[in-house]
Amino acid sequence: MGVAAAAGKAARHIYDSQNTMEYRLKLIISEGGPVVEDDAVSNAYDHIGNFRDYFKAKLGRDSIDNNGMDIICNVHFGTKYNNAFFNGKEITLGDGDGAIFSSFARSLDVIAHELGHGVVQWTSNFEYRNQSGALNEHFADVFGTVITQYVEKSAADDADWLIGDEVMGPKLYGEALRCMASPGTAYDNELMGKDPQPDHMRDIYRGPNDNGGVHINSGIMNKAFYLAARELETENAALIWYTALQNLWPTATFNDAVAQIVKATQLLIKRERVRSGSTQKVRAAFKEVGLPAKDETSIPNTPTAKITQF
Ligand SMILES: [Zn+2]
After folding, report:
1. Distance of CA 271 from the midpoint of ligand 1 (Å)
2. In this structure, are 110 and 206 located in the same domain?
3. Do 99 and 135 fall within a single domain?
4. pLDDT at position 296, please?
5. How far does residue 285's CA lie from ligand 1's centre (Å)?
6. Cβ atoms within 10 A of the Cβ of 62, count?
């Protein structure tokens, strides 16, 4: 038996990397501190607050680790840095290069996505490669879109279901990084190429790039979540997915996730948290994307990445 760490207060701390690659270089604002001028700092602070408050109010989870851990964020990381990531302890946001991407701090779905990787780390802890890695990306996108819909007071049928649309640079207005409603359609342009996400198991990517397609094959699961949310309402689908996440494990496959999501639905019906008939709607959503699948598609020697990226 380990000794449980003292519960924290889930306080926010936003640091400025001042365009270096240093973490926690200069503390700009801590929980309840005075408003600051810097938009990256104030946006990150607000978005992290939305993430934390959603999990507490709707899913009964106390911060990333469910033990009130403080949430640390670094903004202005690197020079023209074109990414955002969670490194196991804190989230870090680049300013973008001003061509493809603008500041990552602008986007609630990006920040909720990164913090969602934190929730995954403290629950299923999916290995960041192959299908388990795509599940890691998928659940992060689920939290990104669910929290955005909650804050914008939109519903499954009028939400945009886009991830990263707010961080596209000036030449890419209207594009996004991923589209959960229609994977494979998020972008198609000279700067970025074409969105490679499949929306069905028949088109699953089996190559070694992207740690075995973690940002590619997540499209299949994303589409199933979208279809389920259209039928059940986003908030109910989120509760089901979050319940299942707590019973998944590091090497879980898509088929494992489907089985746990169906089980979670049944459990929540029994507890009268979701409506009878939800199980069949969840199964139908997965059937639309070819899940559960007959064969497994993991690439045996794909390395596991330590850092989960946007
Ligand atoms: Zn990610």
Report:
1. 32
2. no
3. no
4. 66
5. 23
6. 17
Annotated active-site residue in 47, 113, 138, 215 = 215
Confidence of residue 295 (pLDDT cuts 50, 70, 90): confident
- The CA 73 to ligand 1 mean position distance, Å, reads 16
Judge if 207 and 106 occupy the same domain: no
pLDDT classification of 1: cutoffs 50, 70, 90: very low
Residue 212: name the closest of 285, 296, 279, 298 by CA.
298
23 in a domain, yes or no?
Answer: yes
User: How do residues 239-250 score in pLDDT, each as one tens digit?
Assistant: 999 999 999 999
**Domains identified in the chain, total number:** 2
Of the residues 114, 127, 166, 175, only one is catalytic, namely 114
**Where residue 106 sits, what CATH number does that domain have?**
3.10.170.10
- Whole-number mean pLDDT of the chain? 94
Please say if 114 is a catalytic residue.
yes
Active site residue 47: no
Check whether residue 201 and residue 76 sit in a common domain. no
Using DSSP's 3-state secondary structure scheme, residue 86 falls into strand
pTM of the model: 0.95
Ligand 1 centroid, distance to 180 Cα (angstroms): 14
| b (16+ CB within 10 A) / e for 139-153 | bbbbbbbbbbbbbee
Range of the domain at 265: 130-302
27 C-alpha to center of ligand 1: Å?
Answer: 25
